[in-house]
Write a structure and sequence with these properties.
The chain has 300 residues and is of the alpha/beta class. It is built from eleven helices and 15 strands. It folds into three domains: 80 residues, Arc Repressor Mutant, subunit A; 99 residues, 3-Layer(aba) Sandwich (D-Maltodextrin-Binding Protein, domain 2), CATH 3.40.190.10; 106 residues, D-Maltodextrin-Binding Protein, domain 2 (3-Layer(aba) Sandwich). Strand 1 and strand 2 form a beta hairpin. This is HTH-type transcriptional regulator DmlR.
Length: 300
């Protein structure tokens, strides 16, 4: 492998500053020259070293290895080049930030089968509904609803269109008349959701004659835990709302009853998203291909 050694100070500046602009200022060159130099270095190794978005710059796992190795004596630099070079085998730590409502991803089979097919990859899943910059936080990818993913991210479909459901148990409905219109929910015990204590409860969204509207319910119980919402609804604790995938098994057994179906339209589903496709790490590329294969098996 022939590496342009002039690119190493450039990489070290980016790694140290975590900013292309700051690195350019430190070296006395243009930001464009920094960007092109990093790309040439990544092309040499055949793997991504730096994750960059319009908001932040962070090192990939391979970039961290190179940065750490370059801090060693100069005699070890050649070994560092060979260590970071990709052999296209998925390996290393794959870190993914996932929203708690992504039932298709968190249910188990998809992740379990990916792990079985890629034994050299360790997987770290962080479940959170707070919105944050996955690149700045050091994650390889995230899973969110398509409508909330930043425009500078690449998104791969995980599910098809989604739909929310309003549900309650037969025991709750035996004691309370079923709502006929979303505005009737203000007279019911509702189980609400919010991502964190300092955020107002989620406003339930509906549509009538293709015109969207929302209802500001006053939840009797509020939580950030989807499974607690489900458990409370099953126990007759009130009416709640979440994605259809969450409730379908319980609708089929009769443990829950679907309400207000005519007021709940489809919306874009869940996506795996990440900053860029060029020189993608094999572990992430393998996950994307696994998701595509998994979707085909589900559809067909």
């Amino acid at each position: 492998m022939k590496v342009d050694l002039n690119l190493l100070p450039l990489f070290l500046a980016v790694a140290g500053e975590r900013s292309f602009s700051a690195a350019a200022g430190r070296l006395g060159i243009t930001r464009s020259a920094v960007s092109q130099g990093i790309r040439r270095l990544e092309d040499t190794f055949g793997t991504q070293l730096v994750m960059r978005t319009t908001r932040s710059v962070n090192l990939t796992e391979a970039g961290e290895r190179l940065y750490s190795s370059l801090s060693s004596p100069l005699a070890n630099i050649e070994a560092a080049f060979e260590h970071v070079a990709s052999d296209n085998t998925p390996r290393g730590l794959l870190r993914i930030a996932v929203t708690s409502i992504a039932e298709a991803f968190l249910s188990g089979p998809l992740l379990a089968s990916y792990a079985a097919a890629n034994p050299a990859v360790s997987i770290d899943i962080f479940v959170s509904d707070e919105e944050f910059d996955i690149v700045a936080a050091g994650y390889d990818a995230g899973v969110r609803l398509g409508e909330v993913i930043e425009k500078d991210m690449i998104a791969v479909p995980l599910t098809g269109q989604q739909r929310e459901m309003v549900v309650a148990s037969p025991s709750y409905l035996a004691a309370h008349s079923a709502p006929q219109h979303p505005r009737d929910l203000v007279d019911h015990q509702c189980i609400g959701w919010r991502p964190s204590p300092d955020v107002a409860p989620y406003r339930w969204e509906f549509a009538e004659a293709s015109i969207p509207f929302n209802v500001a319910i006053e939840p009797r119980i509020t939580t950030n835990d989807l499974h607690l919402m489900l458990s409370l609804a099953l126990a007759g604790g009130g009416i709640t709302l979440a994605t259809k995938d969450t409730f379908t098994p319980y609708i089929e057994t009769g443990e829950l009853v679907s309400l207000l179906d005519d007021f709940l339209p489809d919306f874009p589903g869940f996506y795996l998203y990440f900053p860029q496709r060029r020189n993608m790490a094999p572990k992430l590329r393998a996950l994307i291909e696994h998701i595509r294969q998994w979707r085909q098996e589900i559809i067909y």
